[in-house]
Amino acid sequence: MKSYEKLLLENRAWASEKVSEDPDFFNRLAHLQTPEFLWIGCSDSRVPANEITGTQPGEIFVHRNVANMVVHTDLNLLTVLDYAVNHLKVKHVIVCGHYGCGGVKASMTKHNFGIINKWLRNIKDVYRFHREELEEIKDEEARADKLVELNVQEQVMNLAKTSIVQKAWAHHQRPHLHGWVYGLKDGIIKPVFEMPAGTHIDDLYEFDDL
Ligand code: CO
After folding, report:
1. What is the pLDDT of residues 57-73, one digit of tens each?
2. Domains, the chain
3. Active-site option among 63, 96, 101, 143
4. Helix, strand, coil share (%) of the chain residues, nearest 5
5. Whose CB has fewer CB within 10 Å in the chain, the N or C terminal residue?
6. Cβ atoms 69, 97 nearer than 8 A
C-alpha cells in the first residue's frame, strides 16, 4: 500500500468510528460551525491544534504558517482573522508557538534560505527589538527558546494593532488574546502572554474611528 493510500484508509476508519460514537456527528457539523477559538499556530507537523488541546472538529478555527506569525500585509492571515472575529465571533484568539521551532532557529542564523528569508525577516525584527535580553542568554538553545516566547508575545501585540481586533474590542469586548508556547519534549502548553479585550496599547497604534 502506498503511504497516501493509508491516509484514505485511516480516514474511512475514523469516520465510521465517529458515527458509531455519535450518529448525528457529521450531520450536525455539516450545517454549522461555532468555534469559540481561533488558533494561529506553526505549520510544524508535531503541533496539531486539535490533538494537543483535546478538541473535536468544529471547536477550533485554525490558521498555521511557519513560526506562527501575524504579518500585517499577509492577506491570508487577515482574511482568517476577519472571518473568525466578525463572522464566527470567536471569543479567544490563541497564538501558539513551540520550543525548538525551526523557523525561529533559522532566523537566528546568517544562512541564505532564498525566498524564505523574506518571512524570517519578521522574526529577525523581533530579535532586534529584544537583542539585549536575548544576548544575556549564552546557551544557544535557551536563547532560541526565549526568542520563541518573545515572538509569540510580539505576534499577539501585532493582533492588537489590527483595526479588526480594535474594532471588536470597542464594540463587543472580545476577543481575548493569548500567547502560548507548546513544549515538543513534554507536550505541555505554557501560557506566556495575554491581552484581555480593551488592553491599552501604544498610542501610536490605536485607531480613533472604530
Ligand atoms: Co515551528
Report:
1. 999 999 999 999 999 99
2. 1-32 (no CATH), 34-200 (3.40.1050.10)
3. 101
4. 50, 15, 35
5. N
6. no
